[in-house]
Amino acid sequence: MTVSEDAPPTVEDRQVIAIGHGALLRAVQQSVVENSVTVKVAGVGTVRLPALDSLAWLGGLAVLGAIGVLEWPVAAAIGVGHVLAQQRHLRLLGDFGKALEQV
């Protein structure tokens, strides 16, 4: 059987790229660091805040609560829910990278 030169490459012909587990964990850690803001507070130490887009969203939510468009308990509940969901997502990424490193 002959193969024409215009035929797509078979599975055996394709290049396989392997990423080590350590590289994946470092990529996850770098993603967490790049998507947060680190602030040094005197007497407290280093505090890691959410990404700038999340801070802007939370600031907008605070303004809506302050001017009365939203009741402040509703704005606070939405803000806390947003922060908790974001932290859960980042924790899952970190746990995924650690689990792959153990394999």
List keywords for this structure.
59% helix; mainly alpha; two-stranded antiparallel sheet
Strand content: 5-15%
Secondary structure: helix percent = 55-70%
Q: How many structural domains?
A: 1
Sheet with the most strands: spatial strand order: 1-2
Outline: elongated
Tell me which oligomeric state these chains represent.
Answer: single chain
Q: How many helices in DSSP terms?
A: 3
Structural class: mainly alpha
Report the biggest beta sheet as strand number plus sense, adding barrel if it closes: 2 strands, antiparallel
Q: Name the average pLDDT.
A: 76
What are the secondary-structure elements, in order, as H or E? Answer: HEEHH
Describe it for me?
- The protein contains three helices and two strands; from the N terminus they run H-E-E-H-H.
- By secondary structure, it is mainly alpha-helical.
- The protein has one domain.
- Strands 1-2 form a two-stranded antiparallel ribbon.
- A hairpin with a 3-residue loop joins strand 1 and strand 2.
- Helix 1 runs antiparallel to helix 3 and helix 2 runs antiparallel to helix 3.
- The model has no long low-confidence stretch (mean pLDDT 76).
